[in-house]
From TrEMBL:
<dbReference type="GO" id="GO:0005923">
    <property type="term" value="C:bicellular tight junction"/>
</dbReference>
<keyword id="KW-0472">Membrane</keyword>
<comment type="similarity">
    <text>Belongs to the claudin family.</text>
</comment>
<feature type="transmembrane region" description="Helical">
    <location>
        <begin position="114"/>
        <end position="141"/>
    </location>
</feature>
<dbReference type="InterPro" id="IPR004031">
    <property type="entry name" value="PMP22/EMP/MP20/Claudin"/>
</dbReference>
<dbReference type="Pfam" id="PF00822">
    <property type="entry name" value="PMP22_Claudin"/>
</dbReference>
<dbReference type="GO" id="GO:0005198">
    <property type="term" value="F:structural molecule activity"/>
</dbReference>
<feature type="transmembrane region" description="Helical">
    <location>
        <begin position="79"/>
        <end position="102"/>
    </location>
</feature>
<dbReference type="InterPro" id="IPR006187">
    <property type="entry name" value="Claudin"/>
</dbReference>
<keyword id="KW-1003">Cell membrane</keyword>
<dbReference type="InterPro" id="IPR017974">
    <property type="entry name" value="Claudin_CS"/>
</dbReference>
<comment type="function">
    <text>Claudins function as major constituents of the tight junction complexes that regulate the permeability of epithelia.</text>
</comment>
<keyword id="KW-1133">Transmembrane helix</keyword>
<keyword id="KW-0965">Cell junction</keyword>
<protein>
    <recommendedName>
        <fullName>Claudin</fullName>
    </recommendedName>
</protein>
<keyword id="KW-0796">Tight junction</keyword>
<dbReference type="GO" id="GO:0005886">
    <property type="term" value="C:plasma membrane"/>
</dbReference>
C-alpha cells in the first residue's frame, strides 16, 4: 500500500513536471524589461522568449511577434530552444512509461519485477529530463545576470529574470523529485520480491529435509518386517 502511494505521488509529480516543461517552453517571459536608470518607461513591458517577443502597453494591450529566423537569437536562446523541445519529448516519454509501470495497469501483466524495471526506467528518464530543463534555464539566467552587471552593455539592452525561469527551476526540481520517487519504488519492489521468493525456498528445504529424515525410518521398518 505504501509503494502504491509512492507510485501515485511520483506520477502526480511527473505529470506536473511534464506540464511545467511544456509551459516553460512556450512562455515568452524568459527575459523581461529592466526598469533602471533612464529606462523608466513603465507603461511598456518587453518580454523575450524562445519563440517570440511580446510588447505589453500599460497592462491593456499586448502585441507578440514570432522570430523571423533562428539565427537572429542569441546563442543561449538557440540552445535553450533545442534543449527545451528535447525535455518536452522526454517528459512525455517518461510519463507514459510510468503509466505502464503502475500497479493498477494491467496491459503490462502482473509481474512486479517487470513493473519495477519499468518504473526504474521512468524514474531515470524523469531525472534526466529535470537536468535537461535545468541547463537552459540556468544558462539564460547566467547570461541575464552577467549582462545586467556589465557596464559596457547599454541600459536599454539590459534585462531581468522572467517568470519562465522561476517556473523552469521549480519544474526541474519537481521532475527530479518524481524520478527519485519512482527509483525508490523500484528498489522497494525488488527487495520485497526477493524476500518473498526466499521464504518458499526455505520451506521447501525444510520439507525436503523432513522427507529425507523420514524415508530411512520407513525403509528400516520394512527390513524388520
Amino acid at each position: 500500500m505504501a509503494t502504491y502511494a509512492l507510485q501515485i505521488a511520483g506520477l502526480v509529480l511527473g505529470g506536473v513536471g511534464m506540464v511545467g516543461t511544456v509551459a516553460v517552453t512556450v512562455m515568452p517571459q524568459w527575459r523581461v524589461s529592466a526598469f533602471i536608470g533612464s529606462n523608466i518607461v513603465v507603461f511598456e513591458n518587453l518580454w523575450e522568449g524562445l519563440w517570440m517577443n511580446c510588447m505589453r502597453h500599460a497592462n491593456i494591450r499586448m502585441q507578440c511577434k514570432i522570430y523571423d529566423s533562428l539565427l537572429a537569437l542569441s546563442p543561449d536562446l538557440q540552445a535553450s530552444r533545442g534543449l527545451m523541445c528535447a525535455a518536452s519529448a522526454l517528459s512525455f516519454l517518461a510519463f507514459m512509461t510510468a503509466v505502464l509501470g503502475m500497479k493498477c495497469t494491467r496491459c503490462t501483466g502482473d509481474d512486479e519485477k517487470v513493473k519495477g524495471y519499468i518504473l526504474l526506467t521512468a524514474g531515470v528518464v524523469f531525472i534526466v529530463t529535470g537536468l535537461v530543463v535545468l541547463v537552459p534555464v540556468s544558462w539564460v539566467a547566467n547570461s541575464i545576470i552577467r549582462d545586467f552587471y556589465n557596464p559596457i552593455v547599454d541600459i536599454a539592452q539590459k534585462r531581468e529574470l522572467g517568470e519562465a525561469l522561476y517556473v523552469g527551476w521549480t519544474t526541474a526540481l519537481v521532475l527530479i523529485a518524481g524520478g527519485a520517487l519512482f527509483c525508490c519504488v523500484s528498489c522497494c519492489n525488488e527487495k520485497s520480491s526477493s524476500y518473498r521468493y526466499s521464504i518458499p525456498s526455505h520451506r521447501t528445504t525444510q520439507k525436503s529435509y523432513h522427507m529425507e529424515k523420514k524415508s530411512p525410518s520407513v525403509y528400516s521398518k520394512s527390513q524388520y518386517v
